[in-house]
Amino acid sequence: MSRVGRMPITVPQGVMVDIKQSEVTITGPKGQLNRRFHPDISITLNNNTLTVSRPSDSKVHRSLHGLTRSLLANMVEGVTNGFERNLEIVGVGYRAEKTSDKLVIRIGYTHPATVSPLPGVSLAVEGANRIKVTGIEKEVVGEMAARIRAIRPPDAYKGKGIRYAGELVHLRAGKASKAIGKKK
Predict the structure, then answer these.
(1) What's this model's pTM, rounded to 2 decimal places?
(2) Fold exhibited by the domain 9-80
(3) What confidence tens digit (pLDDT) does each residue in 65-87 have?
(4) Which of 13, 102, 149, 150 has the fewest Cβ atoms nearer than 10 Å?
C-alpha cells in the first residue's frame, strides 16, 4: 500500500468538493479548481475526508495512487490558503518594479525584461529586490517563479541574479593565480 496514497485528506470547513466520475471540482474561499484524474483510481468523500483507493497493485496503479492523493491535497490547500513563492534579486543596480499587471525587471541586460503573469497568478514587488508570486494552483505558481528565475539565474562566481528566497548558491573559486599572487 502506498504510504502517501493511503493518507486521508481532511476537507476544512467552507470547502465544497464535487466528485463526478473521474472529475473533481473543489471550491473554497480563494477560488475554484477543477481536475480530471485517471478513471481507474477511485476518490470518495466521507465525513469531510477524501480517500483515494486503487483497484490493483500493478505498477501503474501504485504510481497513480500517490500522485492522485498529492494532487487532491494540493487542490484543497490551494483553495483554502493558496500558494506563494518568493524570489530575491541580488546584484548592484538590479531591481524589479510592477507596472499595471506586468513585472519589469532590470537585471543588467540592455533592455529591461517584461514578464506577464500566467492566468491565476498574481505578482507583487516588495522593496526593489523581492518578488512574490501567489496563486491557488501550485503547479502554475511554481512555473511562474521558474520562468522569472530563468531570466537570470544566479551566477556561479559572484552569486548575482534571481534566486528563490532561501536558496543556497554555492560560489566557485576564481582563478588560482589571483588568489595566490603572480609568480615572478
Answers:
(1) 0.85
(2) Outer Surface Protein A; domain 3 (3.90.930)
(3) 999 999 999 999 999 999 999 99
(4) 13
